[in-house]
Description:
The chain is an all-alpha fold and 288 residues long. It contains 17 helices and no strands.
Amino acid sequence: MNTPRLTKPLYSLEAWANHFQTLDIPVLGSSAEQLEALRANEDNVDAHLIGETFANDPLMTLKVLRHAASLGRERRTTDAETITAAVVLMGITPFFNTFGPQPTLEEWLANDEEAFEGVDAVLRRSDRASRFALGFASHRGDPDAYVIHTAALLHDFAEVLLWCYAPALASEISRRQQADSSLRSSKAQKDVLGIELVDLQQSLMRMWHLPQLLSHCIDDKAKVHDAQELCVLYATRLARHTAKGWDNAGIPDDVRDVGELLNLRPEPTLRLLHDLLGDALPPLPSNY
């Protein structure tokens, strides 16, 4: 991976999408190691095991889904919406043939501590969001619960790619938001990049022919959100608000919204959140 880092914004959304469309995607170091362990034991590996192994790595997930979406689109009646489904579509041996030893995020950002910390924060947030979303969808009995988990995991993939390939610009966005806590992410992104990352994500998902349900669930700009979108929207919002603890001013509204979605009162909603993350939650504040 010798792609140069961008230091200045590109001139349009189309230019951003075209730039990112063909870039190689690094994966977590742990995923690269696990892939080689699975490869060495290929005869005892199935699609479910591969799906479980990489279920919490948004980069590997994105990479596998992107490849699966490129295979025989004209002949398929369904899209692969999870890693497990993608491997079923590909086959075990073709999967290993396609995905050889992987470049890792740790190697790519080895000399940029700030960018690595930025990516790490997004990945931790994505993990929390995916656990929230899966829990919400499962509570509702949604048959697409694991697709909703995948959507929440991928919700901020453009921000991860930005830290990888334009770390100076990602850092500037972060610096501005740290200096002004009221500055919305979309405004900071527009000011620094000339675009919003949600628009870049939608463009890339169309270019890569990713499943419609995934892009639908990740579309924060939809004018009307259905229950599946709300699972992802509320999960990612909660993950952002709880990134540094449970005292963010927006959390009471999050708990109210999740409770309405799941038909739960505030106290059971908080208990559910506790169960999903295993966090030691504080006592219920009086403003909930």
